[in-house]
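TA notes, week 10

Several of you asked for a full example with nothing omitted. So below is the full record: structure tokens for the whole chain, then the designed sequence directly under it. When grading your own attempts, check the secondary structure regions first.
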């Protein structure tokens, strides 16, 4: 048992530390000690009228906050060049204001203002309302300025939230803060949505990293609640922050080098398609159902269980290839691909189900005829929408 003597306010008292519990043997200064601890310690009855202060939770919170503030200051210094570049991009694209200031709900539903680099046009928030902003909505409503998509995809618009963390409105890691309008829309539909308010919202959220941006709040809430209930240590959070910033730096450098290479080889405008097209390796589509128009019979070459090669995919359509023709059918497809497991060397199969319709056919001759089809699709459920964007379109950071 360790002990030491402390002199305070001209009164001598003995503090005995046992398993991070402090026993104060001086009734005259018990109120002063309570005040010094900001009334955050839990007071337990003890023998002879003394008090026992359980400081384990208090000391842990103070230590975590000190480490967090130190990390934020380091990140702010390192990111100063990015602050200058992002501010210039926003100013050149859409003038002032440079920063977006929006209302969010924090711990215990406390309202605070969040800061971002402005990636949308000035009246975008009133036009979005309580909806989740997707790339398709941004394109249809022309919500993003010239560099807005770049700032959002590279997560550079989130950098000013380091100031929110420094002020104590947010933490480095935690569920992402949500708008009051979005909360009012989903609070009755999503079970345990209020669990997220047990902790401070985070600059980096588990659902933000492991799900694409446009995924529904129902799926995101599951990941956020799992984080809140497990409560990893501050050192696990710091490791997670390092992992995320490493990923973001890699994505940023790769994107810049790709643009430089396109400029050098003459393709200065890049790909002009509205939706990003992603080639697929070791991927195919399996017909699991058909719904032909006007009672026509299915193509005899294809039946339930037939496979077609999946060449590439974007947000709206698939490019399929086969040796047999399809005849304008509505299909139910099971998309499959082999993906590497994150923590093991063994491959893992990823599967998603979609309703599809053949829109365009082309014939490519390579020894023998190969038929290529542009097929528009809709995922059959929100979970399959998540699987498409996570595993096939690779829309998340990790």
């Amino acid at each position: 048992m360790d002990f030491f003597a402390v002199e305070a306010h001209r009164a001598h008292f003995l503090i005995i530390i046992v398993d991070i519990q402090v026993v104060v043997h001086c009734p005259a200064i018990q109120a002063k000690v309570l005040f010094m601890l900001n009334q955050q310690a839990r007071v337990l009855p003890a023998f002879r009228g003394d008090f026992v202060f359980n400081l384990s939770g208090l000391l842990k919170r103070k230590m975590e906050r000190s480490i967090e503030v130190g990390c934020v200051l380091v990140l702010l210094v390192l990111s100063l060049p990015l602050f200058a570049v992002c501010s210039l991009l926003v100013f050149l694209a859409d003038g002032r204001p440079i920063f977006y200031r929006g209302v969010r709900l924090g711990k215990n539903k406390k309202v605070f203002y969040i800061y971002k680099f402005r990636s949308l046009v000035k009246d975008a928030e009133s036009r979005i309302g309580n909806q989740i902003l997707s790339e398709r909505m941004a394109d249809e409503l022309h919500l993003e300025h010239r560099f807005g998509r770049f700032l959002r995809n590279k997560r550079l618009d989130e950098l000013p939230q380091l100031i929110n963390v420094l002020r104590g409105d947010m933490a480095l890691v935690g569920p992402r803060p949500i708008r009051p309008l979005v909360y009012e829309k989903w609070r009755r539909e999503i079970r345990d949505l209020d669990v997220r308010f047990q902790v401070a919202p985070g600059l980096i959220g588990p659902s933000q990293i492991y799900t694409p941006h446009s995924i529904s709040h129902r799926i995101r809430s599951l990941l956020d609640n799992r984080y809140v209930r497990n409560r990893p240590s501050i050192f696990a959070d710091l490791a997670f922050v390092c992992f995320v910033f490493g990923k973001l730096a890699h994505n940023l450098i790769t994107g810049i080098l790709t643009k430089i290479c396109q400029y050098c080889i003459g393709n200065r405008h890049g790909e002009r398609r509205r939706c990003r097209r992603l080639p697929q390796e070791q991927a195919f589509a399996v017909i699991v159902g058909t719904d032909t128009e006007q009672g026509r019979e299915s193509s005899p070459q294809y039946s339930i269980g037939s496979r077609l090669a999946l060449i590439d995919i974007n947000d709206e359509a698939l490019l399929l290839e086969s040796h047999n023709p399809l005849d304008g059918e509505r299909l139910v497809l099971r998309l499959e691909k082999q993906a590497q497991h994150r923590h093991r060397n063994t491959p893992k199969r990823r599967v998603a189900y979609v309703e599809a319709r053949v829109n365009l056919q082309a014939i490519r001759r390579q020894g023998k005829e190969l038929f290529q089809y542009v097929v528009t699709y809709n995922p059959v459920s929100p979970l399959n929408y998540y699987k498409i964007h996570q595993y096939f379109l690779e829309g998340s950071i990790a």
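Residues 2-54 form one domain. Use that as a sanity check on your answer.
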